[in-house]
Write a structure and sequence with these properties.
By secondary structure, the chain is mainly alpha-helical. It has 27 helices and two strands. Helix 3 runs antiparallel to helix 4.
Length: about 450
């Protein structure tokens, strides 16, 4: 089949060459061109990029053009027409801007799994690891971005980045001019990275992109997260969440969200990296809570912080209830529906946690005055908020049916009313939960009446 394809290409190329001086030549009638309108341009730019006799300016412009083409669903064509190898060669020798264009194009080629697989097999990871070790920082930032793009789209690629030390060098950039762990404290330090004299904006961009890449690599990946969730890394993320630029803070929050999401499902990881008295966990929780309580923070940063705290629900104890409940309950008054929704989800994780403190947390939520607010959300909340609000109040009713606050808020009547509404979600789990909460409150009230 490959030979037949090659013969076909050569055949119509000879026709094209013989017609090159003909005014009647109609390239659109050629089969390959009709299927791939940009094929001529891809060939031309690939040739310009691959020819080392061309100036760096010409090759850089070719890399940029191919980058634009890759955004028009032509990744397969660029790869199939031999575009990967010239990019890899150019990355190691071109001007910084050209190298950035080449790296970003390689990252853009990862829109389809077949393309990514080809790119990875072409030793891209080896080249990227070398850049992360000793390349210009602007190119390193482009590499981190490209890794994050491929890791986000294709989880199967993630172990390749580990095998070729890409994750190791990303972690080293995360620590660059941030912290070193000294006992239970984190102190500032500049490492021996070759880019120590870069301007602050470039350093911040590198740190943000390295963190973004690590967050994408960590998502749902129990194999990679243990190496990312080491105490020193968690401390670095906590410090960057506190002191980094806006983008660094956001990417740090996203990374913590992904790490804690994996830890939520992995008891061994919680025990090794996020046990309650570890300095890394304490620093992480402290910074997350500070961000959540800062009324000036925007929702984009708040939401991953809220999710990260919720993911850590099983690592809290009863003595922590007041602090964490007050922090999350304040968000039920937020005008941003997505913030309120995620606050409800996080509180639910505390109310139904499996670490035997669910009763204490449920009680604390009620004592803090949540019943009336939850009923308001039950009736009048945005549809994004109503479902998580209903789930939360159901768990509270199940765990503390004797609460006077629940009785005063007429929670039982509300729960009985809810299934009759036409807009109620048909989700079986919610109906089951509503039934259990209603039955528990009914039973408690009936037993209370008999005692009286």
């Amino acid at each position: 089949m490959q030979l037949e394809n090659v013969i076909g290409k050569v055949s119509w190329l000879t026709i094209l060459l013989s017609s090159v001086n003909s005014e009647d030549m109609d390239c659109s009638q050629l089969n390959h061109v009709s299927r791939e309108p940009l094929l001529f341009l891809i060939w031309e730019e690939n040739a310009l990029l691959a020819d080392t006799g061309n100036s760096f300016q010409v090759r850089s412009e070719a890399a940029a053009t191919l980058g634009e083409i890759s955004r028009h669903d032509c990744e397969h064509s660029i790869i199939e027409e031999g575009g990967v190898e010239p990019f890899l060669k150019f990355v190691g020798e071109g001007p910084i801007e050209g190298q950035e264009n080449a790296v970003r194009t390689l990252g853009s080629l990862g829109h389809a799994w077949e393309s990514v697989e080809h790119v990875v097999l072409a030793d891209v990871c080896k080249v990227w690891a070398k850049i992360l070790r000793e390349g210009p920082m602007k190119v390193q930032a482009a590499v981190a971005w490209a890794v994050s793009e491929i890791a986000a789209r294709h989880p199967k690629c993630r172990d390749v980045f580990v095998r070729h030390d890409v994750v190791y060098w990303l972690l080293s950039h995360l620590a660059f001019e941030t912290v070193e762990v000294d006992g239970n404290h984190a102190t500032s330090k500049t490492n021996s990275n070759v880019n120590g004299n870069e301007d602050p904006a470039t350093k911040a961009a590198m740190k943000a992109m390295a963190t973004r890449a690590l967050a994408k690599l960590a998502k749902g990946n129990s194999a990679i997260v243990p190496s990312i969730a080491e105490s020193s890394v968690l401390l670095i993320l906590a410090v960057n969440l506190e002191k980094g630029t806006k983008d660094v803070q956001l990417q740090s929050a996203e990374a913590l969200m992904e790490i804690t999401a994996v830890a939520e499902e992995d008891a061994e990881l919680r025990t090794s990296a996020l046990y309650r008295n570890s300095p890394a966990r304490k620093s992480t929780v402290d910074q997350l809570v500070i961000k959540i309580t800062d009324e000036k923070e925007d929702p984009e940063l708040l939401i991953p912080c809220i999710k990260a705290v919720g993911n850590l629900a099983t690592t809290f104890e009863a003595t922590d209830t007041r602090m964490i409940v007050d922090t999350l309950l304040r968000l039920l008054h937020e005008t941003n529906n997505f913030v309120t929704k995620n606050a409800c989800i996080a509180l639910t994780k505390f109310a139904c946690t499996s670490n035997y403190f669910h009763v204490e947390f449920s009680t604390a939520i009620i004592i803090a005055g949540a019943a009336t607010q939850l009923i308001r959300l039950f009736y009048f909340g945005n549809w994004n908020v109503q479902l998580p609000g209903r789930i939360l109040i159901c768990y509270i009713a199940i765990h503390v049916p004797g609460s006077e606050e629940l009785a005063q808020a007429k929670v039982l009547a509300v729960l009985k009313w809810a299934p009759k509404q036409s807009y109620m979600t048909p989700a079986e789990t919610l109906y089951t939960l509503l039934h259990k909460a209603t039955s528990t409150l009914d039973l408690y009230h009936s037993q209370g009446s008999k005692r009286r």
